[in-house]
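Weekly structure sync - notes
Attendees: PM, LS, DV (DV joined late)
Agenda: review two folding runs queued last week.

Item 1: First target. Sequence and C-alpha cells pasted below for the record.
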Amino acid sequence: MSIVKMVELSSQSTSSWEDATRQAVERASQSLRNIRSVWVKEFEAVVENEQVTQFRVVLKVAFQLEEGTSARSTRSMGSEEIQGLE
C-alpha cells in the first residue's frame, strides 16, 4: 500500500508563476523525497509603479511516504525545513 502526503508551500519569482512553481519544487526536493505532483492553488502578483514585479504561488506538494517511515519523522521534515520556503 502506498500513502501520499501533501504539504502546502508558497514561493515567488520575478520571472513567472511557472518559475515560482519550479523553485518551490526544487527547494522542497532538498528535504522531501518521492515528490509525485504539485497542485497550484493560488496565483498572486505584486504590482509596483504599474508593473508586475513578483509572481507568487501557493501550492500543494504531494510526496509518497517510504515504507517503514514513521509519521513523526515526516512531520518534522515538513514543518522545520519547508516552512521557510519563500
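Item 2: Second target, run right after the first with the same settings.
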Amino acid sequence: MAKILLAEDEAVIRMLLVEMLVDDGHQVIEAADGAQALALLESDVAVLISDVMMPRLTGDEWVTAARGRPGMDMVPVVFMSALPLPPAAKALATAVLQKPFRPTVLVKLVQEILTGDTPTPHAGSALP
C-alpha cells in the first residue's frame, strides 16, 4: 500500500507497531530515534509517524528538518506521545495519538490518512 517511516525509541513498541502496519500491507522504515529517522528518510514516504520525546532529535526536530527536503512539505505526520505536545509538534501534526493506545488505532488512522479521509486532529486514543 504505502511506505511509512516510523520513529519510536522504545524497541518493543516499535516492533509491535511495525508488525501491525506490515500486516496491513504497508512497507515500513523503522528508526530508533529522530536522527536515524532523518537519515533513513526517503522521498517516496507517504506518512511520517513519530514519538515526540526521543534521544538525539525529538519528533518535532526531525520532522521540521524533513519538511525542508524536496517533496516532504505535505507528507502527513502522526505524533505519538504520553505527554502534552509542545507547540512546535502541534503545528506539524496531522494527527496525534495519546499513549498508550491500541496498535489497531494507529493502523486505522493511517488508513484514513491514505484514503484522504480527514482524521480528527489531535485525536485522543488512550486505552481505558
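Discussion on item 2: The longest helix spans residues 11-23.
Action: LS to circulate a short write-up before next sync.
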